[in-house]
Amino acid sequence: MKKCPNCGALMEADVNFCTKCGTDLRNINNTQVNESELKPNVNPPITPEKKEPEHMKQSTTPNDRQSVSEQTSQTESQFAQPRITPQPPQYNSQPTYSNQGQTNNQYQTSNSARKEKFNNYWQWCVASWKRPFSELTGESWYGWVTILAEDIVLVLGIYFGMKAVANRYGASTFGLGDTVSGIAFNSTIALLFFSVLFEVIVIGGYYAAYRFIYGHGKNLLEFVNSGVHCSNLNLILSVLTFIIMLLGSNNGSMSALLFLLIIANFFMGFQVTTLGENLKPVRDKMYGYIISFFIIIIALIILFSLIYSSAYDSLMNQLFSAFS
């Protein structure tokens, strides 16, 4: 055992420094210790003064002590928590676009897309007027949109023509202005419905013949595009008929002639599309044409009978209500 000469604490033989006061015990020899000395000291321990480590004791000059203190301060600064300096708020210099700007960009994009579609459709119409029987590709909506536009133009022309006839014979002077307007409007709606059904029957009959003859080929929308491309002069004839009807009732015979020409051209366009296809026929084309003829005739007879009865009843009811 070793006994510290400074504080009197007992240490093990292999301890070089006192654990209480830090005194160097390397030069202290081991001595025999009585059992009374091994008993714990009841008196409170005296707090020793803080001793410098051995390497600091050896530096006796002020310069050496200053260097040691600098090293200690450097070591303490390494383990010290870094001080966080608040940064000023940074603002984004890039411009931000509002929802209104994004909406305007979307509107311009959609507007340019619509213009491009209309230009493509117009080029398709011009090509059909120059070369009706040429095979040109187009979007699936070209055909049926063209047919619907032709029907609307024709029906509006008929509506204004009926109004012109009623005004010519002074229907308003007899108090029949409202009645004539109602009859003209109802007749216009009925004619539009009749025109659509008529064209559906004709296209359906020729497409059935097309599938009977070839067994494969174009689908229904492609078939409609080809038929309308061949008969697209009807678009010009429909606009011309509309203008003539607006000019007055004296041009009724000219309007009727143009109307018959439109119907004939419509039949011819789909007939050429059905029989002039550049495919190897599976069945004879003559029988396919006969099938289309009977389908169209039978369907039109049924349609005319239904429309005649309904239109006659509607007209008579309006007349009786006007004079009652």
UniProtKB/TrEMBL annotation:
<feature type="transmembrane region" description="Helical">
    <location>
        <begin position="141"/>
        <end position="162"/>
    </location>
</feature>
<protein>
    <recommendedName>
        <fullName>Putative zinc-ribbon domain-containing protein</fullName>
    </recommendedName>
</protein>
<feature type="compositionally biased region" description="Polar residues">
    <location>
        <begin position="90"/>
        <end position="110"/>
    </location>
</feature>
<feature type="transmembrane region" description="Helical">
    <location>
        <begin position="230"/>
        <end position="248"/>
    </location>
</feature>
<feature type="compositionally biased region" description="Low complexity">
    <location>
        <begin position="66"/>
        <end position="78"/>
    </location>
</feature>
<dbReference type="Pfam" id="PF13248">
    <property type="entry name" value="Zn_ribbon_3"/>
</dbReference>
<keyword id="KW-1133">Transmembrane helix</keyword>
<feature type="transmembrane region" description="Helical">
    <location>
        <begin position="287"/>
        <end position="308"/>
    </location>
</feature>
<feature type="domain" description="Putative zinc-ribbon">
    <location>
        <begin position="1"/>
        <end position="25"/>
    </location>
</feature>
<keyword id="KW-0812">Transmembrane</keyword>
<feature type="transmembrane region" description="Helical">
    <location>
        <begin position="182"/>
        <end position="209"/>
    </location>
</feature>
<feature type="transmembrane region" description="Helical">
    <location>
        <begin position="254"/>
        <end position="275"/>
    </location>
</feature>
<feature type="compositionally biased region" description="Basic and acidic residues">
    <location>
        <begin position="48"/>
        <end position="57"/>
    </location>
</feature>
<keyword id="KW-0472">Membrane</keyword>
<dbReference type="InterPro" id="IPR059113">
    <property type="entry name" value="Znf_ribbon"/>
</dbReference>
<feature type="region of interest" description="Disordered">
    <location>
        <begin position="32"/>
        <end position="110"/>
    </location>
</feature>
